[in-house]
Predict the structure.
Amino acid sequence: MPPGTVHAVCSLDCPDSCGVLVTIDDTGRATRLRGDPSHPVTRGFLCGKVAKYLDRVYSPDRLLYPMRRRAGVPKTALPHGRESESFERISWDEALDTISSRLAAVARDHGPESILPYSYAGTVGVLGYGSMDRRFFHRLGASQLDRTICSETGGQAIISVYGRKLGTDPEAFPHARLIIAWAANIHGNNIHLWPFVEEARRNGAKLVVIDPYATRTARAADWHIPINPGTDSALALGLMHIIVRDGLYDRDYVARWTCGFDQLREHIAEYTPDCVSALTGISVPDIERLAHDYATTTPAVIRLNYGVQRSDNGGAATRAICMLPALTGAWKHYGGGLQLSTSGAFKWDKAALERPDLAEASPLGREARIVNMSLLGEALTEPDSPALGSDPSNRPAVHALFVYNSNPAAIAPDQAAVLRGLSRPGLFTVVHEQFFTDTADYADILLPATTFFEQKDIQGAYGHYYVQLSEQAIAPLGEARSNVWLFSELAQRMGFTEPCFRDTPDDLIAQALRSNEPDKQHPWLAGITPETLQAAGGAQRLRFEEEQINQPFLPFAEGPFATPSGRIEFYSATLEAQGIDPLPSFRPAPESRHTSERERYPLEFLPRKADNYMNSTFSNLPAHRAMESAYNGVLEIHADDATARGISDGDTVDVFNDRGSIALRAHVNGSVRPGVVAARLNWNKFSAGGHNVNLLTSQRLNDLGGGPVFYSTLVDVRKSS
């Protein structure tokens, strides 16, 4: 690549989607990266994780060449630094020939649905996340993956209320006078919103944090409200009870733009402050104060994050919280409302990118079955399991697994089942990765993947409203290749003759934007093309109609809305028809302080994400591990619970339930309340005993969208012998 500065976009799974400037020297090496100062939201600075991204790109541990498992070497977890002993280098031709022939054999012998792709948001670039790969698996007839593990429940929840996944613009936050961070560690994983929050506070706003854990954001807040895990729906419904009881709701907005208010009013009558206090652990005066502060402060905004949905009652909780600004009319005010995700604003042409119509040309001649990624352990280990499809007469076992953009051995629930499945004899596994991850240990064929420096892509965001073009900054290191290249090459090896499998990244970007068909572009993308993005320095704001006439974009200030009724739906007839409660309620999780299961395992466990990693990304890099060193291998426990078990700070403890036991070091501190313990996600191979926190989590699914219930987990703790 020629020397100079290249505009790229951080493609990690983060709402900020930072504009990044990469400096390239005359040898083609990236020597510096910094935030793009012209980006209106990310404003020229990088988070602590990405500021060290050069360490990742040029790590001596990068996987740079295709590898094959050595003959006779069993599939098992491998010690860090010794992984290459189990693999031997091969050429890309050997790798592609092996993969294509094995997939063809599996499809022939067991049916194409016995092939399962497994991916998520290792990159959130539009092309890398889902384009050529989806085309390939549609055409192959492979099982389709229900990508539920992160945001599906929350997305379905907000859509059930408003019809679209939109939210308050981060640039409007300085105008708020009350900001509620509900399960949102802004300072830890949405850092580019923080300057807007601080600007609001300088203007007199108050920051309230609702979280069972004392996060970085909670420690910096004006008021931290600890809440019992999994009881957020009860609190939201209790706030509604007080707001309606005291006549603090916006009668005009409710009458004009919502439906189901009468049913809601009757429903929330039972969520009295006393009842809600008993469930949430929040005092009655604090519940009353929060309700009044929220309903009487204008503008008031809620930054809701996805932690709320990761419990058995997570869909209802997200729905209930999302209803609060509709009840108070907060959407009418610039700086008011709620932000969960802005991703619904980016109207990419997904059908053109993913080509689901190719399924008709597959051996099936139809769309394939769908497998929920949160049930991977069950899908790999239990023949004829419902996890393998809704049709009892058609549940072929998984005989080939293709993993990319994900590390399921570390991040999927019920880890023991997942690892049993990955080590199953006869399972052919391909892993496309940048490093020897926990999942790579179980690969038959291991392929080197590019970083966002080494590929071209286009990107939206789920925390702001800017389209960005991410230019390729450097040539791929070694023989690393992008998802687009890989699945294009595989398609041609499989004999797929459709021209779409030869599309280039530039072709795909044009298709995503429909920039070659301007009359078919969505109005919010109107006039945005690769050329205009380049001319704008890489980023352009979506073209909201209101802003074209110098009015602020207020996503839900007035209807009609994209719901079946055309109104904001407190009561959802659509969900009712699916057998789901039309009104959100609190229902205790099977594993919680509210059920008899607590007699066996009395502590609620929070398997948290690390502040200095991105899910499992960065967990292996020395600089990032150093930043996280105070929490690696640590169990945070309240003094009351530690004393009751004879545990002192620094003791080695066993954290256990029916699914397994992990060894951690006790840290007796004030980040958790009595009855709650917390530990952070790490790679298995950097964890004592070779297992991380997901050894303890279950494969139960929550109440909406089939999402996982990581935060509805009970354990006990004992001092190690």
About this structure: DSSP finds 25 helices and 27 strands in the chain. The first helix runs from residue 53 to 57.
